[in-house]
Structures are given as C-alpha cells and as structure tokens.
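Dear Dr. H.,

I hope your travels went smoothly. While you were away I took the liberty of generating a structure for the chain from your last submission, since the lab meeting agenda had it listed for discussion. I wanted you to have the full record in hand beforehand rather than looking at slides cold. The sequence, exactly as received, is reproduced here:
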Amino acid sequence: MNRRFFLKSGGIALASVGLVGASPSFLQRVAAAQGLQAGSSGGRRKTLIAIFQRGAVDGLNMVVPHGEKNYYALRPSIAVAQPGKGAAGESAVDLDGFFGLHPALAGFKPMWDAKRLAIVHAAGSPDNTRSHFDAQDYMEAGTPGVKSTPDGWLNRYLQARLDPKASPFRGVSMTQNLPRVMQGRAPALAISNLNDFSIRAGQSSQSVQGGFEDIYEQAAGDALQGTGKETFEAIAFLKQVNPAQYKPENGAQYPRTQFGNSLLQIAQLVKAGVGLEVAFTDVGGWDTHVNEGGARGQLALRLTEFGNGINALYTDLGARRMDDVVILTMSEFGRTVRENGNRGTDHGHANAMFIIGGATRGGKVYGQWPGLDTDKLYDGRDLALTTDFRDVFGEVAQKHLGNADLKKVFPGYATSAAKFRGVLG
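The corresponding predicted structure, in token form, is as follows:
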C-alpha cells in the first residue's frame, strides 16, 4: 500500500483508555473541541453505536406479540409461550401486556423499566426484495431499491457535518472491512482488533498489521505534516497502553466472542474521549430456515450472545455516559409469520428495532401494529411494514446527533420530523 495514501487517508489504530502523562497535541485539540479531557467521563459529545444483525433476525420471536392469537396459530412449534405459561425461563418477558421479549433477552427488561429502551416494531425497508445482499445494501445505503448509491447513510451523515478539526476517530467500524454504511467521502476507519492494531484505512486499502514504526521512519516530506503527523502522534501515544489491560466497569461481562470483543472495544473508544461520533459493528447467524427453535434452540443461542453483549456495553458505559450514547439495532428484513416445514422461518418483510440510551423515550413499543390476520399480512405471508427504517434512522440522526439536513443523509426520500415515531426526546 502506498505510504502517502495511508497517511492521507487517516488510517490509524487505537490502543486503549487509562491514558497517563501529557497528551500530545492531537488529543489536546480533540479534547479542546469537545470541552473535556481525554480519557475522562465528562463532556457532552453524542455518540451513535449502530449494530447490524446480518441474516434477517426473526423479529416476531425477538419481540413477541404474545397478545396476538395468530402468532401461536401460525407457529405451533417455534412460538415463545405467553408470559407465565411456559416452563421456567421459557416464557416471553412481558413488556406491556401485548408484546414481550424473548426470554434470552430478559436482561433488557431493567432497561425497559428504566425507560432507557424503546422498540419500533413492523419497521424496515419498503423494498420487497428477499435477497440478503440487496436488502443489506439498501439498508446501509439508505436508498431502498437503488443500487447505484455510491455511499452509505452513516458516511453521508458525516459528510453533512464535516468538521476540519474532527478527530480521525470520528467514524469507526469494528469490522474486518469498512462496511457499506460507512463508505463514502468522509473519513472513516475499520479496525478489526485493537490488540494487534489491524486496520483498514478505506475501501480500496490493504490490511495493515503492525509496522507503523517502519512506515513512520520511511515517510518523508509533507506526508508527516498536518493529519499525517497527528496520525502517528496518536499512535505513538496510545500504543503506550496495552488494550489487553482494559477492565470493563460496573461488573460488565462481555461475551467472549467476536461480537462481544467488538462491543468491548467500542466502549474503550467511547471512554478514551478521542472524538468518536459514530461506531458500527455487526453480528451474523440469523438466517434460521431450519430448526429455529422457540424459547430454546438456535435463535435463542444467537439472542443470548446479542443480548449479553449489549447489556455488557450498557453496563460498562454506565448511566452517565449512556446519557450521550444511543445504541441502534437493525436487520435487513424480518421472517415469515408462518413457520415452514423445517420448523424454521423464511425470508420475510418488516422487523423490530431496538433503541437504547440517550434521550430515548423508553418503556414503549412504537409504530403501528398491523396485526397477523391473513388479510393484514404482506403478500399473505409476512409482517406488514408500517415504519420506514429511514424515519427511525433520521430521528436518531437529527435528534441525537444533531443533523437537521436529512435530505443529504437520505437523498430522494422526504423524511421529516412529522414521520418520526417520537422515540427520542
């Protein structure tokens, strides 16, 4: 990879928190811009943590409409029992008398009770594709039905609020490659693992593992001026702290999985106070065509990892930091209402989304519930869509992150505050 391209693209790796000693000018400028000291828990910078459930999670078993009789009629072997009607630990966790959580997500109930967790049901893309690839592309681009969109909606958000003094850490994806949603003209990083400093600086760059000192020594001329100098200044400083030494707070225990590790590292970035504004990660394994299971089984195992990871992140960051953080979950589409002959579910339409933290008006399931009667189903088989995902994304972008120009974020779509569900205050 061309060293000059690497430097100018702002590709960097981050170590950890618990920073000691005098901050280099890079961190001093970031801290000054935010009005806080690097490594502190203060300040009012808003952060969005977006989590993509790749593979189309079964939203009807994740957020169970236990008050809907057709849910049980159409899922004789995989439905989650009504609250109190199943074996211990195998009933839906009641939320409001109609909806409940899958028992694997019982840890979300305290967040719900504290009104820090909201749900939007029957949400998703208005496009009718049942292709994972296309549906993920449309959701990440934010332009359903349009394959030619060159960038992702999170990158367009960053573009719409360009700041010449912004941190190189402003947009970070904890993934091997920069995802579609983060690709575009605004600088963004993919960091696969803070421990080995493996990063991708952009869509067309190669992986870089270690070797920063060599690049630093061999770089010359103006490559080490400006942002290039800041990049390596930050690396030299942050590498003094071993990421393996990081200790989650408040008794948080992350799953010992790739997903759990990505959330742990996002928590490190938030606490480091180095200007993180948008973080992204994903978790797969949701394509449950065969032997999905109900309260137990394949889906339950995936939801256990998913729920435990988010709970750990929420606990680790603590109430004060979570005031300035919103966790947003999404999946490309839902699954069929009727179980198939393999005791699984096939590709569907609308789904459920979680919004946690920040100024969330939690303790409520938002969106119009279309019902599961045959004449209410999309194509006679799926949960019908009543909330366009762009209206959920747009509300988060505007009310939490402060972007009022949603036309730039969602081109070709007339999103407005009138379409928001009121999930955020």
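Two observations you may find useful: Residues 52 and 259 are 11 Å apart (CA to CA). Confidence is low (pLDDT under 50) at residues 1-24, 32-43, 198-227.

With kind regards,
E. W.
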